[in-house]
Automatic annotation (TrEMBL):
Name the UniProt record assigns to this protein: Glutathione peroxidase
GO molecular function per UniProt: peroxidase activity
CDD domains: GSH_Peroxidase
Example GO biological process: response to oxidative stress
Oxidoreductase keyword on record: yes
Source domain of life: Eukaryota
Gene3D superfamilies: Glutaredoxin
GO cellular component: cytosol
Phylogenetic placement of the source organism: Eukaryota, Viridiplantae, Streptophyta, Embryophyta, Tracheophyta
PANTHER family: GLUTATHIONE PEROXIDASE (PTHR11592), PHOSPHOLIPID HYDROPEROXIDE GLUTATHIONE PEROXIDASE 6, MITOCHONDRIAL-RELATED (PTHR11592:SF118)
Family statement drawn from the similarity comment of this UniProt entry: Belongs to the glutathione peroxidase family.
């Protein structure tokens, strides 16, 4: 699947294979903007060197809260919030013109009361193999999402694979993990 970045360059999303992704629809004039952009930048800074990427997709479908052009959006995110993660072309996330990536995300992980994105800053966690692991509400703090290459535990096929994953975690210090899921696995 290919998308365009905010500078108009084509980006093949396969370049992110092997990385854990947090995909977010962003807006610059939303009540959730300051907290989300601030926390997204902190999360990215903390984990960017460990196989984690944030993919930000500006969207103007909710209250017209992302009215700027791509240049203005980049200026806002990169100057005010020091966003170093990729910011893509403005997209629709719902409706007939919804971007293919959002059609995929929504079909993979439906939301409460239907699949549509409800507001700015809805978040999707995608594992290293491209599986959508979880979906988070706009009000979910990015810093409360414990992301991990271990998200592929959901797709492990046998106990040996689980044990290999756990061995990797314990010997290498758990730089990313979904704490609630590891607790379930170990229970």
């Amino acid at each position: 699947m290919a998308v365009q970045d905010a500078r108009g360059n084509d980006v093949d999303l396969s370049i992110y294979k092997g990385k854990v992704l947090l995909i977010v629809n962003v807006a610059s004039q939303c009540g959730l903007t300051n907290s989300n952009y601030t926390e997204l930048s902190k999360l990215y800074e903390q984990y960017k060197d460990q196989g984690f990427e944030i993919l930000a997709f500006p969207c103007n479908q909710f209250g017209g809260q992302e009215p700027g052009n791509n240049e203005q959006i980049l200026e806002f995110a990169c100057t005010r919030f020091k966003a170093e993660y990729p910011i893509f072309d403005k997209v629709d996330v719902n409706g007939e013109k919804a971007a293919p990536i959002y059609k995929f995300l929504k079909s993979s992980k439906g939301g409460l009361f239907g699949d549509s994105i409800k507001w700015n800053f809805s978040k999707f966690l995608v594992d290293k193999e491209g599986h959508v692991v979880d979906r988070y509400a706009p009000t979910t703090s990015p810093l409360s999402i414990e992301v991990s290459p271990v998200n592929f535990m959901y797709f492990a096929t046998d106990i040996t694979e689980y044990l290999n994953i756990l061995g990797y975690i314990t010997s290498n210090g758990c730089y990313f993990y979904l704490q609630k899921d590891i607790k379930k696995l170990l229970a």
